[in-house]
Batch of 2 targets.
Target 1
Amino acid sequence: MTLLHRVLYPEPMLSLDEYLARGGGKGVTAARAMDPLAIIDRVAASGLRGRGGAGFPTGRKWQTVAENRSPVAPSTVIVNAAEGEPGTFKDRSILRRNPYLVVEGAIIAALAVGADLAIVATKQSFGGEVDRLRDAMEEMEDAGLNEGVGLAVFEGPDEYLYGEESALLESVDGRWPFPRVVPTFRRGVYAGADPDVPEGPALVNNTETLANIPRILIRGPEWFRGVGTEASPGTIVCTVTGYTRQHGVGEVRMGTPLGEVIEAIGGGPRPGRSVKAVMSGVATGVITADRLDTPVSYEGLAAIGSGLGSAGFIVLDDSVDMAAVAAGVARFLAVESCGQCSPCKLDGATLATALATVATSEARDHDYGVIRKRLATVADRSRCFLATQQQVSVGSIVERFADEIEAHVRGGADPVEPELIAELVDIRGGRAILDERHRAKQLDWSFNERDSGTVPVERYQKVAPPWLR
Ligand SMILES: Cc1cc2nc3c(=O)[nH]c(=O)nc-3n(C[C@H](O)[C@H](O)[C@H](O)COP(=O)(O)O)c2cc1C
Ligand code: SF4
């Protein structure tokens, strides 16, 4: 299977001159000659769906933001470059190789929805990508490519929740990443505007989503639909990590069988091993080995009780204990929960503890009962999707690998430590580097020896975010 290079370039694009010489910049030129509604129509006709995880139709989102323009406050485009989903490294890979493409997509989005500012919201710790972006923006400004659209980079915190779109806006506005109730197309960011004027709407799109935009404008919706499936047109940039021969990122046609993606990017399972399960990040149901022929598409993975998420495939082989995986996922999500919704934080924490007890073979029937009960309630009254992720991803492992979980409870399995599930720091020399610091992160988001017993929203609401000082 050949990998494609529509948005993930094989080599880094080193200058704006090189980008323009290879056809870059034509998307903005085309957009400037079009009516904003015609731009939105073209994106809608392409069938592009958001690559940040939910797969929401991009054209429809742009239309909603355009319709919600405020008569007094400016609209803003926010590029979600927070990339924190465990097992995912595609946005950083795209930015490292071609930041011009993403910024060009953001400028076109701003022209379409009537925004006068585009902010790329990345992380302070993504130093290399931040430098690449700043340099690219400076070159594009010097060349006048962004006329009428201000460009900025925001360096946010490492918290997983920062990637949730309304938490992202909170962070850009100088607060902690705690999700809001009001949708982003109603309340965006101040971003230096008049503080007495309510915020105008924000269009939040994922990095990969926007990287697709320039070519859709130049080559048209039919070209975009030339690969992929009817419901999931185009390509998808996949990350493969876990128990495979190698780790990496590659762009494939939507609809490619999952097993082929694992083979092409990850080199397949390690010698003498076989795939037991695959997780698409920690937002969807676990995929069992008998489903490796499933097409990598929104509808294909949903049909087997999973989902595409952000196409970060964590491959687990027959040496892995699924109780350890369930405990690792539950811990990651419980720690990263902000605590605005009690069931998400408290049931999540109970689940993490109970599953760790299962993995270390200290659990009894009672703990198994607790796990089932808390899985049923953890997503109650939740403000954002993180709580549902806990319910769906952990619930699916407990259900689909019930034999392995029960073996621990009945004393028939060796004790194991929870698997580390955490953000990727980098992929170097074909190996993924996980954020080892997460092992020490407490439920209150501190790295203190002991957790304070408070939840992040209580602990930090009145404290100025340290990354802004
Ligand atoms: C807990 C959580 C973390 C998220 N992290 C990211 C992220 O790192 N990057 C991203 O693009 N979207 C992330 N999302 C999804 C965003 O909220 C949002 O759906 C996305 O930025 C929309 O862009 P799209 O329509 O182009 O996909 C996250 C969602 C949740 C609930
Ligand atoms: S669902 Fe969880 S992470 Fe989301 S706002 Fe509520 S407590 Fe915070």
Target 2
Amino acid sequence: MAELLFPRACVGCNRDGSFLCDACRNALPRKERHDCPFCRRVDTPYGVTCLSCAKRHALDGIFAAMPFQGNPTVEDAIHVLKYEFVTELAYPLGILLVDSVSATDLPIPDALIPVPLHPWRFRFRGFNQASLIADILASELTPGLSIPLRDDILRRTRFTLSQARSKNAKERRENLSGAFALYKGKNLREEIKGKTFWLVDDVATTGTTLEECARILKKRGAKKVFGIVLAR
Ligand SMILES: [Zn+2]
Ligand SMILES: [Zn+2]
């Protein structure tokens, strides 16, 4: 029945068989150059935050495997995953992210944290796309040694407008200020202190969401926090 309603067709070439065929996945553009996620003026290795922005920001960098805008297959694949609930797309996209991030010198994290969804949105969608991607990183990044995936550290406390709908950077910041918090009642402080984390998400736009999450972790003594996303 599901097949009839929603036959498997590649988001890139429309051929039957899978939601993203090997040819289209291999043809997806990879980001060649990376810049400071905040000022966007300085090319930095793997998207680490430049020295001058590092003074005012908690996040140590955003690594994106692919450029988002102007790449219809990337945009379609992520849209279909999130809004048409085709969770099967997480696998080919996640593997692509594993390939790209493995080629960097970013420190392997102590844990992966998917950017949380608000419970309302989670209930509506039935899954968190960031968790699906983080799950693939957790199992595939270091063969034979899985990295802990921690979805019990950060939670979303406020239901916020979709970031895509809020207009400018200032509005996004206001929209997200105080939108995340730590889970309570556990010895989280000890688990965060001195640790390196990768915050995993599907797409980063301004980086405000990742910065908000990083701020909370750094306040509790995290050593390094990087955003790791499919596309930006
Ligand atoms: Zn295709
Ligand atoms: Zn900068």
